[in-house]
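Hey, does this match?
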Amino acid sequence: MNGKKVVVTLALTVGLTVTAPSINQVVNAETESEIQAERSALQDELSEKRAELEDIQAELAELEAEIDRVNEDIEANEEDIAETEAKVEKTETEISELEAEIAELEEDIERRYNILKDRAAALQKNGGASSYLDVVFGAQNFTDFIDRVAMVTRISQADQSLLEQLEEDQATVEAQKLQVEDKLADLEETQDELERMQALIIEQKEVLEANMEHLEERETEAQTIVEELEIEDSELEQMLQNARAEAARRQESQQSEIVQMSSDSGSGSNNVPTVSAGSGSVNSVIAAARTYLGNSTYKLGRGRTQSDIEAGIFDCSAFVAWAFRQQGVNLPAYTGGMANVGTSVSPNNMQPGDLVFFDTNGRNGHVGIYLGGGKFIGAQSSTGVAEANMSSGYWARNFSGHVRRVMN
């Protein structure tokens, strides 16, 4: 018990007996204190994990809100893209109509040129390629000359007006076409910009969703840890209740368990037995321990009732205590007590049957039975009762170097 000594004084006087607390009461008090300390540390860790879980959930809520905003942006941008596509289609239709109009105008220009050619040909008496001047000077007399000049003038003016109208119509249509083409170019540029923006928004959404997935994994892990810690806290609470119930039971039977030291009376004794020696062998202890290989479950605080033992449910110290009890050796059923029973042994001198301790849950927080060859057997939290190698890997790193011999 960490170097503590319980001094039991038995005073014998005529008609008066002075009693002291039993060893089991002191051990139980220490067990209760250790369980309470372990539970307090676990509850601190549980509070931290709950706070961490709340932070993750708050961050998840923020991410969800941001993803909702991005989805709204994507939807609005899709509407803009659809509207722009409609405008592009409409503009392309306008260009097609203008091109058709230009083609029709070109046909009209061609037709009007043909009319002019026909008019010129009608004025030619002898055919060929005579000009308006030939027509004028072909007059028979002065009156005919005047008439021909007037006719040629009217024709020339009409032709000039027709040509000007054609040029004006052609320029108007071409200007409209250029204007519509500029409009189409602007729309296509807007469409490209919207599509680029959409790609960036979608990429941003993918990043947010990846962050969301990572946070959800962290949330699941944190939730699992919180649930495991809550279960462990519940088990420690049960252990504490069991320890208190055992203390009450022992207190009730205290009078029948008082150490009688009348034969050694005089000065009292400072030696308190911490382990009851049995008549069995180390090999028998190991053989008993191996009966639970592959058919047991680890549960903190369990293995101290007959129903748990029959079901193969143990924690590390309860399992070790059970194995030794099969050969008549009674050990404290908690690691703190086991760490002080028997004789301290150097790791270099370990023998099968020695108790070996590991710093997996505080100093000397895990205990097993050494088998020899660098191996030990114990109730491990991940496997139940199993043999493990303590010469390398996890158990080598966590071996505290503390060894106790309780049987020779």
About this structure: Strands lie at 11-13, 16-18, 297-298, 313-314, 343-344, 355-358, 366-372, 375-380, 384-389, 399-405. The chain is about 60% helix and 10% strand. Residues 82-232 form one domain. The longest strand covers residues 366-372.
